[in-house]
Design brief:
Blueprint: H1 6-45, H2 58-68, H3 78-87, H4 97-110, H5 113-116, E1 129-131, E2 139-141, H6 144-147, E3 161-167, H7 179-183, E4 187-190, H8 201-204, E5 210-212, H9 215-222, H10 230-237, E6 243-246, H11 252-267, E7 274-276, H12 279-291, H13 301-312, E8 313-317
Parallel strand pairs: 3-4, 3-8, 4-5, 5-6, 6-7
Antiparallel strand pairs: 1-2
GO molecular function: alpha-N-acetylneuraminate alpha-2,8-sialyltransferase activity
Main location: Golgi
Disulfide bonds: 164-313
Length: 318
Amino acid sequence: MGYADPSSGRDLLGNRTLFFIFICAFALVTLLQQILYGRNYIKRYFEFYEGPLDFNSTKCLELRQDIMNVKVLSMVKETELFERWKSLQICKWEMNVTEANSFKNALSRCCNAPSFLFTTQKNTPLGTKLRYEVDTSGIFQISPEIFNIFPKEMPYSRSQFKKCAVVGNGGILKKSRCGKEIDNADFVFRCNLPPISEKYVADVGMKTDVVTINPSIITERFQKLEKWRKPFYDVLQGYENASLLLPAFYNTRNTDVSIRVKYVLDDFESQQSVYYFHPQYLINVSRFWLIQGVRAKRISSGLILVTAAMELCDEVHL
């Protein structure tokens, strides 16, 4: 008969205990490193200064370089990159006119927002067979009825506005107190019917010149405008005389509901204009940013507006 060594169980238990202690110690050290890293990071980037720093100060050059050093976004935590961007706000902004003009010229060659941002009677004549942005096999022929709802030509020209603001709807401006600065812009773009009631005015302002509407919002919140249209009209009144911009020719599903917006406003005798993105403009903008390294399946409404604003405005503030 064999006998087990009574000390073997104690050795096994001791090994497990030591292993558990090692794991706990490792986790604790890792946590302390993260805490210390975070403190050093905050200390480095969030020192208190009396007023903004000069654009070319040593500190601002260092902050900009820290952001420019990021070559692969996946190698950096999103929160860390965002904190670096926030820290840069202590620096005075200064426009590089040469670079801005060069970029604007590149956009003019590829996209030409002053001529092709919207479908117009000039760039989309009667009878045009308009190809959709995504459903490229789909063709929409411009009938007299649709032709008549297009503006005669683009309402905006190159560098028409001195200072523009492009305001998203992701909630990043909460408690920012940026409302007054936004309202001081000469022209304000907003994305996808964001709330601009008195509750939010201190953070996001009220002024709106163009607001985009994703047709999915109309489908989900307003039942495609097939029944009750007054709630949709009431929401639009918060934007006063802002023009509405929709991707009617992004795909075949968007067309009817986007055109219906124009008819609703006509029914209520609204003075608000309704415009539609030219699908070729959207295609050209996507190609432009793809060359710049943006690998999104489809670029966002915000980036489209920023791209257009860079041609229509001398300065663009986000």
